[in-house]
Amino acid sequence: MTLHPFDEAVALTPTADGGFQGKTAPAYANMVGPFGGVTAATLLRAVESHPERLGDPLSLTVNFAGPVADGDFTISARPVRTNRTTQHWVIELTQGEAVTTTATAVFGIRRDTWGDGEAVMPVVPAPDEVAVSGFPDFIAWARNYELRFIEGALPEKEAEHPSSTTTLWVRDAPARPLDFASLTSLSDIFYPRVFLRRGRYMAAGTVSLTVYFHADAAELAAHGTDHLLGSARTARFSRGYFDQSGTLWTPTGTLLATTHQIVYFKD
Amino acid sequence: MTLHPFDEAVALTPTADGGFQGKTAPAYANMVGPFGGVTAATLLRAVESHPERLGDPLSLTVNFAGPVADGDFTISARPVRTNRTTQHWVIELTQGEAVTTTATAVFGIRRDTWGDGEAVMPVVPAPDEVAVSGFPDFIAWARNYELRFIEGALPEKEAEHPSSTTTLWVRDAPARPLDFASLTSLSDIFYPRVFLRRGRYMAAGTVSLTVYFHADAAELAAHGTDHLLGSARTARFSRGYFDQSGTLWTPTGTLLATTHQIVYFKD
User: Fold this and answer.
1) What is the arithmetic mean of pLDDT over A216-222?
2) B247 touches chain A (CB under 8 A)
3) Assessment of whether the complete model's pTM goes beyond 0.95
4) Does B98 contact A at CB distance below 8 Å?
5) Which of A45, A203, B40, B89 is the most exposed place for a label (fewest CB within 10 A)?
6) How far apart are the C-alpha atoms of A143 and A173, rounded to whole Å?
């Protein structure tokens, strides 16, 4: 049986000291090192694979401290506190002596309560009404996603754009049933907003990424291989850094995750 | 000279092993333990006080793993990676053997670049046109803030509310010049949005809080003791948890910080 490329990318082997060993996947390479979404997903997968794990992900914050080199890496995931319904994790990805990535995660057990999806999904055309487009060929990881941009596709000519908003339909290519790891990776699908505003590429990279998981495992299972609607924008660009906040929805308007990041850029 | 109560609350003493010792401040007590904003500010202050610190805060994520008991606590702040312009920190607050709070922070040196405040401040009346109101007396910490609610004040009678949005003018009381620590604390000024939607109090607490600092030290110094406009809302309430996202602005519409949190509730 052949693994889906995403499952191959986030695959981990337990080590004797309670950690995990992994390997960067060429299929998910970015311009420098692996696509940050897959690194984040791999850190989440380490916790999911840990024998002491309680429940499902509630939040994940990943700090991209330095470049991940192509090749092997080690992940340590430490449950620093386990409560009755929540569990707090501290995670590190290392290569040799270098810490390339730090993270914290909260997992927990959900209970039935009152609920409401207060935010409303943007009104958009259906996936089959939006053309599939892509990223330039030299960005390997994007070839693993089916991308249908409704607004804010990658700029094709050097022209400033008044809005940082990108809205798109997206799913794994080839299709793969949604789970917490792939949802984590999809949270980083929004390329640096500064490219869109300035109408050109420049040095830019995520410094810190946070994902809040609103969906439980049953909602992800029900979603299956369907498209997700993603939308993201920046609040402020200032002195080498900017934020971007995004939402990921089912086609019927259920908010699966919200995601935030702070990004470095050099113009 | 008398310290401002906030400076007293975030005061730390270096310990022989490179950590810090602090003490909870009764003035900033919440219903259980200290106000989360002050805990977050104290963790930031630990990094600010560290001899190896590089630059100013870019982002902070604080995970509230368990209650902080009244009394002494210890903070360890470890610079896991220092790059040319950014530095990554892993932070823990402990009481005895118990880890009550974990955090990661990114500090850095800002450079002059293109910039833009794309998000626009809500149109609101001036601070002196909005009445000062407060929280119930049993919430000690709120007495240290001058609160002028424009919309979404704490519910006074049991009535559901269609929107989770709160918008308010806020500053330290007594007035205190804004700095990164007090801005961090102000990022947690928005009481749990579920109280507003449901029109009543219930068990609720922040699980994880992230702050992105858009302002540099010069912008904070220029702000001084002026009011900040804060606005926050929830995207989705689901099965015991919800997110809330907020913005903090100068009166002239400069976005100083964006903040996000995921909150536990029990109805």
Assistant:
1) 98
2) yes
3) yes
4) yes
5) A203
6) 7
Q: What is the pLDDT of residues A231-256, one digit of tens each?
A: 999 999 999 999 999 999 999 999 99
Tell which of A56, A58, A63 to mutate to test the B interface (max B CBs under 10 Å).
A63
Asked if B99 and B106 count as a contact pair (C-beta separation under 8 A), the reply is no
ipTM: 0.97
The pLDDT value given to residue A138: 81
Selected for mutation to probe chain A from B47, B62, B210 (highest A CB count within 10 Å) is B210
User: Is the pLDDT score of B15 beyond 90?
Assistant: yes
Q: Which of residues 102-121 of A touch B (CB under 8 A)?
A: 102-104, 106, 108, 110-119
Out of 2.60.40.650, 2.40.100.10, 2.60.120.10, 2.40.160.210, which CATH number does the structure's domain A5-109+126-266 have?
2.40.160.210
CB A122 within 8 A of CB A231: yes
Question: For B152-254, where are the E strands, in sequence order?
Answer: 166-172, 203-213, 228-233, 236-238, 241-249
Enter the DSSP assignment of A67.
P
The residues near B245 (Cβ < 8 Å, ≥ 6 apart) are A245, A258, A260, B232, B233, B234, B235, B258, B259, B260
**∠ CA B259-B265-B267 to the nearest 5 degrees?**
145
How far apart, in whole angstroms, are the C-alpha atoms of residue A130 and residue A177?
Answer: 22
Q: What is the per-residue pLDDT for B134?
A: 81
Q: Which CATH architecture has domain B5-109+128-266?
A: Beta Barrel (2.40)
Task: Give the bridge partners for B103, in sequence order.
Answer: B62, B91
CB atoms within 10 A of CB A77: 25
Mean pLDDT estimate for chain B: 96
Whole-angstrom distance, CA of residue A96 vs CA of residue A72: 9
User: pLDDT tens digits for B196-210?
Assistant: 999 999 999 999 999
Euclidean distance between CA atoms B129 and B23, whole angstroms: 38
- The minimum CA-CA distance between A265 and chain B, rounded to whole Å, is 9
Q: Which residues numbered 204-233 in A keep a CB inside 8 Å of some CB on B?
A: 207-208, 210, 212, 214-216, 233
- Exposure of A13 by Cβ count < 10 A (0-12 exposed, 13-18 middle, 19+ buried)? exposed
The 3 state secondary structure assigned to A23-63 is ECCHHHECCCCECHHHHHHHHHHHHHHCCCCCCEEEEEEEE
A92 phi/psi in degrees, rounded to 5: -140, 140
Residue A192 has pLDDT above 80, yes or no: yes
Tokens 């380490």 correspond to A46
Domain ranges for chain B: 5-109+128-266
Chain B: closest CA distance from residue A216 (Å): 8
Percent of chain B's residues with pLDDT above 90 = 94
The per-residue pLDDT for range B17-56, each reduced to its tens digit, is: 999 999 999 999 998 899 999 999 999 999 999 999 999 9
**Chain B residues touching residue A163 (CB < 8 angstroms):** 118
Q: Who among A66, A80, A114 is closest to B237 (CB)?
A: A114
